[in-house]
Amino acid sequence: MTHTVILRGPAQRALATKLILQAPDNFVVTIKEQTRTSEQSDKMWAMLGDISRAKPLGRRHTPDDWKALAMNACGWECQFQEGLDGRPFPKGFRSSHLTKSQMSTLIEWLYAFGAENGVRWSDQMERAA
After folding, report:
1. DSSP letters for 26-93
2. Spatial distance between the Cα atoms of 89 and 68, rounded to a whole number of angstroms
């Protein structure tokens, strides 16, 4: 038996309490912050694409590589391994595991990095057209 309850108000809290009281011994309850939203994910990938096209600092990376670099800059562990072709590739990171607030931190870091490096954001270019 698995239940997921998003605590949005008194009704959901009452349901969670009822489920806990009815649960058999040795069941496990985990309370955690909600993971990132699909809107946050879409925004992050659009921003990473913009950064990749801008080639800031004269560096050419794929959006995936920029994601690993940004996550590392925000303090989330990311390791780079040497691939079969000798090029490094990121390992040990998953933005899908970030919470909503962690994803907000990552997006804010991308905005700051882009501002410091002259990245033009595609959503702003659409509004200017």
Report:
1. T------PPBPPHHHHHHHHHHHHHHHHH-GGG----HHHHHHHHHHHTT---EEEE-TTS-EEEES-
2. 9
* Statement to judge: residues 104 and 78 lie in one domain: yes
Q: What is the pLDDT of residues 29-39, one digit of tens each?
A: 999 999 899 99
Number of domains composing the chain: 2
Q: What pLDDT digit, counting tens, does each position of 60-96 carry?
A: 999 988 998 899 899 887 777 888 888 877 676 678 8
6: containing domain = 1-31
Cα 109 from Cα 93, distance rounded (Å)? 17
With contact defined as beta carbons under 8 Å apart, do 87 and 48 qualify? no
Query: What number of residues does the chain have?
Result: 129
